[in-house]
Write a structure and sequence with these properties.
Blueprint lengths: L5 H13 L7 E7 L2 E5 L7 E4 L6 E2 L5 E2 L2 H20 L3 H10 L4 H23 L4 H19 L4
Antiparallel strand pairs: 1-2, 1-3, 4-5
Helix pairs in contact: 1-3, 2-3, 4-5
């Protein structure tokens, strides 16, 4: 078991203190009965859309307006950048590791397993031919994404 640096534990404590769930930045584009639906919930045959929210609004004066959430996110990124030589993690990985610290040990193991299995299943889905092979690959990706979200591995 790796011992996480004090900075990661500090981040985890701050996240718990805020009491807010981590917003998903993964959006799925689903097609159902000829209609396109975008959701943070995975669906069968979904296309993954990564989104990055804006970080403030510039007034005509050129000043950047930021909410508390953006300031907190930038602070966490600064902490992650400072800890990067110790952790080897970029800001997104650091953020994810902090959120996963709240999970049980068994759920953390499942998340690590899903981290390995999901990219392979997505590649198999992209390579699958139409028909039963494609449906089976889509079902596998759907089940893995659903487990990933249910466990809160994001």
């Amino acid at each position: 078991m790796k011992v996480l640096p004090l900075a990661l534990l500090l981040f985890n404590t701050m996240a718990i203190a805020q009491g807010l769930p981590h917003p998903s930045r993964t959006v799925y584009r689903c097609e159902s009965e000829g209609k396109v639906i975008y959701s943070d919930e995975p669906c069968l045959g979904a296309k993954k859309v990564d989104v990055e929210p804006t970080r403030g609004l510039n007034k005509s004066t050129g000043q950047e307006l930021q909410g508390r959430d953006v300031r907190n996110e930038r602070f966490r990124e600064t902490v992650a950048d400072a800890a990067q030589p110790l952790t080897g993690m970029d800001a997104k990985q650091f953020d994810q590791a902090g959120r996963r610290q709240r999970l049980s040990a068994a759920d953390q193991r499942q998340c690590r397993l899903l981290d390995q299995r999901l990219p392979a299943a997505e590649a198999a889905e992209r390579a699958a031919k139409a028909g039963a092979e494609l449906v089976a690959a889509q079902r596998q990706v759907f089940e893995l994404r659903k487990a990933y979200r249910t466990l809160r591995c994001e």
